[in-house]
Amino acid sequence: MKKIKYILxxxxxxxxxxxxxxxxxxxxxxxxxxxxxxTQPQTITPAPRALILEYLDVIVLIASLSIITWLxxxxxxxxxxxxxxVFSILYFGFYREGCVCSVGSVxxxxxALFKSSYHIPITAILFFVIPLLxxxxxxxxxxxxxxxxxxxxxxxxxxxxxxxxxxxKVLGIIPFIYLALAVLYAATGTDFVICRYDxxxxxxRLDASFFMFAVGGIFLLIGxxxxxxxxxxxxxxxxxxxxxxxxxxxxxxxxxxxxxxCRLCENxxxxxxxxxxxxxKEKEKTEVxxxxxxILSILVPVLVFAGGYTASNFHENLAxxxxxxxxxxxxxxxxxxxxxxxxxxxxxxxxxxxKSAEKLYSEAAVIIDEFYVGSWxxxxxxxxxxxxxLVSLTVFKYQPDYTPNKATCLSCARCMDxxxxxxxxxx
Length: 427
Prior knowledge:
Elements: H1 2-28, H2 51-75, H3 78-95, H4 105-114, H5 122-138, H6 141-145, H7 148-154, H8 165-171, H9 174-187, H10 193-196, H11 201-205, H12 210-225, H13 229-233, H14 236-245, E1 274-275, H15 286-312, H16 315-319, H17 323-333, H18 345-353, H19 357-394, E2 403-404
Antiparallel strand pairs: 1-2
């Protein structure tokens, strides 16, 4: 298995390196500027992908999720999960170029909810909903080996090392912040930040800029030692799956029968997603428990309000990412995007459009107002996440066996191989 993984990684990086060199060679030479009346030919936009092929992607997604569910819950096969990861990299990654992407579909769904003029493709809705439904039923199987962003990190986790539990908790808040920010920018029609800063899509499309190629390479390099850094500490769709998986109907188990507490699975999870046995501790006094819960019940709403109020004070800064707001600001202050001696292309384009500056200012003001309202929800959500994290740290749960943490377990099946317990035979 390890030899196969090394061969696959070598082939992958060889392709990416050659493509990066190719892209660099192309970008070295700018498009010539003709001064002899030459007319630039009209750019031809490629036709959209055939609808039947888009639905084929949905069928492949459902089939892949169903197969990996069977491999994990019935066959308990880590090897099967590995080969599903390879298939995901080849099909959803290189063949489909990372699109349609469940991770990025968060933005499509958000924009469709807040902008009636946006017509969302049905396939984007299905790619958003289907993994959530499977997660509600069986846990984070999409993360196990179907998501191409997670799959490429999973097969490069050669020497994963555990990190401190408190650091895992702190870093685990970042995906929720990223999710809230992505929703804010998508709801205001500003940008799809998840897609723009996806570290692996450029790999799959073989057109990554040098910067994004480097970012993706850094993630994979870190992932050799800290397993799946993007999935655990940045992925916004993973934050949604984290929440839904807590209520999963039938989640994977480390052992197929009664746990014998042999401790062999203790260090097998590279994600720190195994709940260790926790026996009943000394019973606290009732007044201590009541006092703690009163404090928390007051603290959480305070954190929600404080987060919303703080974010609302920075709504203009958040809105400055919007191209229309930024253009209005540049025109109003006559700063020309920091250029000297040459008019910025954005300003030239605006002047040629025939639109008045007053109308632009009016449109920008509406967007800023949207950001003011949205920043209250953005900050409030972050405050709620911090508050609930504090609550989770104070709650003690009786835990007699080794079990996967439903929220953070990525269902990779590594822990299953270490369990000596055999499935119980049915009569």
